[in-house]
Amino acid sequence: MLMWIANWAARHAPTPEKQAERALHELRMELFRAEQQVMDAQLRAEYFRARLLFLEDVTRQGIEAVSDQRKGQQELTQPSRPGPRLTAAQ
Fold first, then answer.
1. What beta strand segments (E) does the chain contain?
2. Where is this region: Disordered (predicted)?
3. What's the CA angle centered on 43, arms 61 and 77, to 5 degrees?
4. Residues in the chain, pLDDT under 50
5. Exposure string over 26-57, b if 16+ CB within 10 A, otherwise e
């Protein structure tokens, strides 16, 4: 019985290779989380940049001019969506 326990302990001992494999998985997850945080921070920075530009435009030009300008941009950027297809594509 003692020999079996010794063999089991030798096979399941935390070798440097096993520890490295475990650490590799953990580090990949940490890298993924860090990259997600960077992307979130970039999105937040872009949001605040756009908001800042909008408020600067409002203070310089007035709300009416900025509103009219933005409405014109929205009309140009909205793609016309085709209606639903009633026939199968051939």
1. none
2. 65-90
3. 55
4. none
5. eeeeeeeeeeeeeeeeeeeeeeeeeeeeeeee
